[in-house]
Amino acid sequence: MSIVSTIPETEEIIQDNMDYTLFSWSKQKGISPIAIKSARGVYLYDYDGKRYLDFSSGLMNVNIGHGNQRITKAVMEQMQQVSYVTPSCVTKVRGDLGKKLASLTPPGLNKTLFTVCGASAIENAIKLARLYTGRHKIIARYRAFHGASYGAMTAGGDPRKLASDAQQVPNIVHIEDPYCYRCPWGKEITSCSRECVGHLERVIEFEGPANIAAILMEGESGSSGCIKYPPDYLQKVRALCDKHNILLIADEVMSGFGRTGQWFGMDHYGVVPDMIATAKGLTSGYLPLGALIVSDTIAAHFNERVLWLGLTYSAHPVSCAAALETLKIYEEEHLLGNATKMGQYLEARVEQLKLKHPSIGDFRNTGLLGCIELVKDRGTKEPMAPFNAKPEEMVIINKVAAKLKELGLYTFVRWNYIFIAPPLCITKEEVDEGLMMISEAIAIADEFVN
Questions:
Q1: What is the CATH number of domain 9-64+334-446?
Q2: What proportion of the chain, given as a percentage, has pLDDT over 90?
Q3: pLDDT at 165
Q4: How far apart are CA 326 and CA 71, in angstroms?
Q5: pTM of whole model > 0.90?
Q6: What's the DSSP call for residue 322?
Q7: Fold of the domain built from segment(s) 69-332
Q8: Where in the chain is the domain with CATH 3.40.640.10?
Q9: What count of Cα atoms within 13 Å lies in the side-chain half-sphere of residue 158?
Q10: Predicted confidence band at 1 (pLDDT cuts at 50, 70, 90)?
């Protein structure tokens, strides 16, 4: 005799997940996840029929929007042919995807090692830099996130690593960020002497240029607060790399594939890195896949040398099929252009919100990768919640986040940041819908402005 559950469907789904699965970056008690039943375009739908506007594209990865059945069809057709082969074999889709990526990357970057995700792309970039140069040190920024595996965690400065990574992977050297809104040197971008670049140059000198394999930089800053580079910063970093024969690795995991209105974040600066580590928008999150795209010079180095890198699921044909179709969608639906257009519209609308909400200290955005920074005082820039805030310091922001969820907005809220990174297919009407909900929630923070 079968037992029929009397628990409401939503409650049962959430309870099964709570009882039998673990949740990232969270205490396992007291959380209240949304049970998503379906998704389409820029919207998520729960089992009770409530609609949520996805204003952060999941984790800044669902660039083409949810539920695009072209991906479903491409994946199904590939699985009907072959679902898996070892990376020592080849498939047509692997070659097609590699060739397509070579047509989108800056000149001179034509070969790709396919990985499983962004973190594994970063891990392999670090390994490859050391193999190629014979050097061991990697320079990276404090306010950056490069993934949650050990090497990638250490390379990032995100404090989520501290609990499990107190000792950290050796030979990673961190530098201060060119965080113009909160300049570590107390300067203004209009009158500074690029102390951030001078700082990097001194660190290179102190660590010994001959010891440094690579400098790792995000194409555009993401989850650390969308920190905007000074307009000539990356060009100066590239010049330092060239001077000392140091490789430049671009982390384009979040900023790649149209997120910023260009194929890659560094394209905005005219800078060509030696490697591009990417993932997320490569398949728009429909299936896991990462990529490490390398210069022809680096690739040629291993023509007669063993490339000591490999993964069981490298170039997984089904994921490659999802990626190839995703790239076609970007082009055929003109999503890069829409990201630029909607980004400009978004920036103008947030400028209007600044007039209404004194708690908005700054808004930083490129294309559709942006965040609002909330402050208690615009003059002193005292944050509504500090970097790596303790639970008791998150009371105000948690109220803002709860209001957003109540209103039907799903987005990434962290410390004093509210991220705005919707799918690239978003319309003006949907931007307005999201900003209306953000405005209502930010009114809570306004009450705590000094």
A1: 3.90.1150.10
A2: 96
A3: 67
A4: 7
A5: yes
A6: H
A7: Aspartate Aminotransferase; domain 2 (3.40.640)
A8: 69-332
A9: 23
A10: very low
